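Researcher: Let's do a round of design. I'm pasting the structure tokens now; please hold your answer until I've finished.
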């Protein structure tokens, strides 16, 4: 797992590294070398380096110097003369570079800048890094809009200029990079909000030899989880198991209005490896589900007049629930009063429980000022996983805005910390999904845009249930299993897009490729472990 840091955590890390004997000036040299090596790999004849006032600019000046020594034709654009650069570290390297074989352009007009961009094969964006804040001031807004308009090939240093490294919010003008060379550790804003779209490919320069030791001494906003980190959680099926010991799931879901959600969640749980999946659905839709899923038993539960779970549902469901390794409750269920009672009944039981979709809406409706203010609703002996998307999560915390990764992590942590429960997990779904436990945040590989389709969430909750059920002996590692499930879901997106085309994928396609996705994740994990490289390329 790779640490993902907040801006403050990066500053603390730099201070620690300095205490260990590597100065910030040395780090700047290493950062510049790293950027230059990435640029060199593209064999540019002519490179344009756009430098700002701060240390991000300093990294750019160092890279410019190295590239010119290696034979590239290098131009540097700076808003002020090197002698007037306010950051002492950056001023030092700027003066040094300006005295060498590099063409320096101080405060060019927009037209002059456009000409320089057009003449270069590669642009290095060292305008703003972690120090960017507030509204983007001239001339940088003009530089950035010119750069984006021309569509130049761009390597951004640390973060794309104009992107807030903490929130991932972008200024009106923000560099659209092909590659972002981030220093020491990725910044959380690169995964949040506009970050993934503007950063392009992300590579991290570790810069410091003992980074692994020092980085453990600062908090981590999150950890990025690769398929290789899943290797411990992928086990071959032993020969001596039966359908029950392989993991059993009860899917409490569906209504006359939304029977499909129950079908997709149940089928996904089975495809993800659970040996025995049962659906408990209102009798209004039970027969439909039976017909659609011949391999899955369906328990018909008395409905209300609208075809949702009725008043008797709670006692029937709570009686059968403890027989299963995991209960998944919510898809397509509606928030009728019978459903609210089912959710509260299941919460009172000890069975490991996943609450998704309408079960979360029932929870939200059952608390007055947000569930973080009524943690007693969620305190239980059994494990609990909540799988809200941003709107559901916002409803759970009484309407506080949740619109990106960072706000999703904050809202999830508020719920978890209020409950103080270490057997609880929030899987906050979004373009980048976070698996938030009481003491760790995991960010699994994000899937393609094809996952943004109706029913995709039902597939994910089914995959989570299937994977968690098969891992019943290891409930201590639910965050890791949650991250594994999210990764598999992401890979269903890649695999389905490869078959159907990214725009045409529908949720049922995702279910059909769960097996392929499991295999892709496993192959990638094993190849990385055995040093063969990531040969499995996401379904390509
Ligand atoms: N992490 C590491 O280990 C290492 C980090 N290193 C590098 O240091 C970078 C951080 O450097 P940094 O702190 O000097 O900040 P940086 O991003 O250059 O910007 C500050 C300047 O921008 C200005 N400015 C701010 N907002 C603005 C706006 N809206 N519009 C216009 N201007 C604005 C701001 O002006 P001020 O707000 O002070 O008036 C100030 O002059 C980091 O990203 C990485 O690349 C490496 O060198 C070594 C290893
Ligand atoms: K930058």
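Researcher: That's everything. Go ahead.
Model: Designed sequence:
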């Amino acid at each position: 797992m790779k640490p993902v840091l907040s801006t403050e955590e990066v500053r603390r890390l730099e201070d620690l590294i300095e205490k260990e004997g590597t100065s910030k000036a040395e780090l700047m040299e290493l950062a510049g070398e790293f950027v230059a090596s990435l640029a060199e790999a593209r064999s540019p004849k002519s490179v344009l380096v756009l430098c700002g006032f701060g240390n991000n600019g300093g990294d750019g000046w160092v890279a410019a110097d190295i590239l010119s020594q290696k034979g590239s034709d290098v131009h540097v654009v700076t808003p002020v003369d090197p002698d007037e650069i306010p950051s002492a570290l950056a001023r030092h390297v700027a003066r040094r570079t300006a005295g060498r074989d590099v063409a320096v352009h101080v405060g060019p007009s927009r037209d002059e800048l456009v000409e320089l961009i057009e003449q270069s094969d590669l642009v290095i964006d060292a305008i703003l890094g972690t120090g960017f804040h507030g509204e983007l001031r001239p001339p940088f807004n003009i530089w950035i809009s010119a750069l984006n308009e021309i569509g130049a090939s761009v390597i951004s240093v640390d973060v794309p200029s104009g992107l807030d490294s903490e929130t991932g919010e972008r200024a009106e003008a923000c560099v659209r990079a092909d590659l972002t060379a981030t220093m020491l550790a990725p910044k959380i804003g690169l995964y949040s909000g506009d970050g993934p779209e503007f950063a392009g490919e992300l590579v991290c320069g570790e810069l410091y030899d003992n980074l692994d030791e020092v980085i453990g001494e600062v908090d981590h906003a999150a950890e990025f989880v690769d398929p290789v980190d899943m290797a411990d959680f992928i086990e071959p099926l032993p020969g001596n198991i039966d359908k029950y010991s392989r993991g059993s799931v009860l899917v409490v879901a569906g209504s006359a209005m939304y029977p499909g959600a129950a079908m997709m969640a149940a089928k996904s749980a089975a495809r993800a490896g659970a040996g025995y999946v049962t659906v408990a659905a209102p009798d209004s839709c039970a027969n439909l589900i039976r017909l659609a899923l011949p391999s899955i038993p369906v328990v018909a539960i008395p409905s209300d007049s609208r075809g949702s779970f009725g008043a008797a549902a709670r006692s029937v469901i709570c009686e059968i629930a403890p027989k299963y390794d995991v209960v998944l409750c919510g898809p397509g269920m509606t928030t009728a009063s019978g459903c609210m009672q089912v959710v509260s009944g299941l919460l009172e039981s000890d069975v490991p429980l996943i609450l998704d979709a309408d079960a979360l809406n029932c929870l939200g409706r059952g608390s007055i000022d947000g569930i973080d203010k009524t943690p007693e609703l969620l305190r239980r002996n059994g494990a609990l996983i909540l799988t809200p998307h941003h709107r559901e999560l916002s409803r759970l915390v009484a309407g506080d805005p949740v619109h990106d990764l960072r706000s999703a992590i904050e809202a999830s942590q508020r719920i978890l910390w209020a409950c103080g429960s270490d057997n609880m997990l929030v899987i906050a779904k979004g373009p980048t999904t976070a698996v938030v436990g009481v003491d760790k945040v995991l960010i699994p590989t994000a899937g393609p845009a094809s996952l943004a389709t109706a029913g995709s969430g039902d597939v994910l909750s089914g995959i989570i249930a299937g994977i968690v059920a098969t891992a019943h002996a290891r409930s201590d590692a639910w965050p890791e299993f949650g991250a594994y499930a999210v990764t598999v879901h992401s890979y269903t997106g890649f695999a389905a897009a490869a078959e159907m085309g990214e725009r045409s994928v529908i949720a049922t396609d995702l279910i059909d490729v769960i097996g392929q996705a499991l295999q892709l994740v496993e192959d990638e994990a094993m190849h990385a472990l055995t040093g063969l490289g990531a040969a499995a390329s996401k379904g390509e």
